[in-house]
Amino acid sequence: MFNNKFKILAFALVGLTVAFATSCVNDLNTSPIDDSEVTAAQVYDTPDDFRQVLAKLYAGYAVTGQEGPAGQGDIQGIDEGFSSYIRQLWVHQTLPTDEAVVAWNDPGLPEYNFQAWGPSNDFVMGMYSRVFYQITTANEFIREAQNRDESIIQSYLAEARFLRAFSYWHALDLFGGNVPFVTENDPIGAFEPEQTNANDLFAFIESELLDIEDELLSAGQSEYGRIDRGAAWALLSKLYLNAEVYVGQDRYDDALTYAENVINSGVYELDGNYEHLFLADNNQSQEIIFGIPQDGENMRTFGGTTFIVHAAVGGNMSASSFGINGGWAGHRTTPEFVNLFDSSDFFAGAQTENTGGYPEIYVVGGFQAASGYENDWSPADGVQLISENSDDVYTGVVYFASAGAEYKFTNERDWGGGDWGDDGEGGLEPGGGNLVVNQAGVYTFTVDLNEGTYSLEAGASENRAMFFTDGQSLEIDDYRDFNQGYSVSKWKNVQRDGSPAPRTDFVYTDFPVFRLADFHLIYAEATLRGASGGSVPQAVAYVNELRERAFGGPEANINAGDLNLNFILDERGRELYWEAHRRTDLRRFDRYTGDNYLWSWKGGSQAGTGTSSHYEIFPIPSSDINSNLNLSQNPGY
After folding, report:
1. Which residues form the domain of 360?
2. Do 568 and 525 meet the contact criterion of CB atoms below 8 Å apart?
C-alpha cells in the first residue's frame, strides 16, 4: 500500500460517469482561462504526481468514489456501495453458482440466484461500468506517462498497463470480449468506440502482459498491494487456463509454464493456517501474490470485504466474533456446495496397520457399514487397535461416518472372548453399555485395559469447511429466509491473534486476487489436460500440500489414482470458495449453465433446473447498446 492508504486525486477523476469515456479532462493541451480549472499539465507534473494518480488506479478496485464510504461516487446510476469493483466481481462470480444464494430483494439481485438477468439489470450495468471506469482511468494515465522519460514513471506505466489488462480480462471473462475497445491511442473526448471480439481482446491482454513482463519489478520486490512480475505471471496463467473457453484454443502448456514461474519463484509460500488468509491482518501472509488492500479507517466503503464479511452474518451468529458491529443477513451457501466437503471417500475404512504382529483388540459397532468396515456389530469386521508394547494399552485410528454412532471394544474376532463398554462413570467395564461418538470424523483411540479407561482424540477434519450451522437449515426452501442454508464463516474482521480490528463498521481484511494455492491447482489441472512438461507425481505433491494444510496432516492425502478433473473442480471449490473464482471454473468444466450440474435455485427452481447457455456470459447493458451504434448485443439477450 502507499503509506497505508491510497491517495485520491478527486480533481482529476471525479465526474466520470460514462463507461466508455476516454478522458475526464476536455482539452489537455491548452491552459485554462479560469484559474480554478485544473489541467492535465498540472495533474501530471512531477513523478510524485504520477505516483498519486497511480494510487487512484489501484484505489479504484477498493473504494467507490472521492469520499468514504459514500459521496462523489465514481459511477452514477447505481447505489455507490453496490458499485464497488470487488463487490461487483464477487456478486458476478459467486451468486450465479452453487457457492451462494442471496436473501435480499434489491431490484435485479434475486435474478443472480437463478441465472435469469437481462441487459437492463442494474448489477450487470454496475459491473460493466466499473470495469470500463478502471480502463478509462488507466488509459488517461498511460497516455500521459508514455511521453515521459523518467525511469520511475516508466515503471509506473508498466503497472498501469497491467491494471488495464486486468480489467480487460474481466471484460473478456464476464462479457465474452464483445465490448467497446479503447486505448491511449484513441481520441480524447466523447466518441463511439468500436466493438472488439474475444479473439482480439485475448490477444491484446496477452501481448500487453508479455510486453511489460520484464519492465515490472521482480516477483516479491514491489510494495504490498502493488503488482510485480509475479502478478503478471499469475494473470497470464489464469488467461491461458481458460483460453479454450474464451477463444477455443488449447493453451494449457502456457498455463502450466506460468504457474510454474509463480511456484518456483521462491517468493511465495503457503500460509501455515488457512484461516489466516481471510483475517484483518492477512497482509502478513506470504501466500498472497496480489491483494486489494482494505483499510477500515482510511478506505471506508460499503463494498469490498466490508460487504463480504457483513453480508454473511445474521441469524444466531455473533457479529462481534466476526469483528463487526452487525450483520446484513444476506448470503448463505447451497447444500450442494456443502457436500463438497464430505470427506468420507478419503477416510472410509481407515485403520492402523499391524505390521509387527502386536496384540490387538477391536472397535465394533453400528457405525461399521456406513464407515467402510463392512457389517455392523461384527467383530470379524471390527477396526483393530494395537498394543505396540504388549502392555494392554491399545491405540489406533477409527472413522465414524456420522454422529451418535454406538460402539464397544472386543478382544477377539467374535463375541466369545468378551467385550468392554461404558461403566457409567466415564470408564470401561466388561459387558458395559454401548459407547457413543458425538461427532463424525476420524479419531485416535487409546484404550488402557489395565486401568479400564479409554480416550479418543479428534483427528483429521476439513478445516476449510467454515460453515455456521446453529439455527441454519442445510436445505433452502425459501432463498429469502437467511436461516435457510448454512452461512459461510470464512471471512472475518479480526486479527490472527484473536484481537479485533480497529473498527467494526468497516473492514480491514484484504481481498486476495491471486494466491499461491490457486497455482498449485492450476499446475495439476493443466497436467491432467495434457500440458507438456507436467508431472502427475508433482501435481499430486502440490495438491497434497494443500490437503495437509486443510486436514492438519497427511490423513486425507491423495494418490495418482485419485487425481482427475472432477476431483480438481471439487478441490478448487474447497480451496478457493467465496474468492470470486467459481463461475469461471464451472464454465471451464461445462458445469455452469445447462443441466450437467444442478444446485438449489439454479434456473429459479428450488431443486435446480437447467439454464440456457447464453447465460455463460453477461449482456452488454442496454444503456450502452442504445447510446453506441457500433455495439451489438451478446447472443441470447
Report:
1. 344-458
2. yes
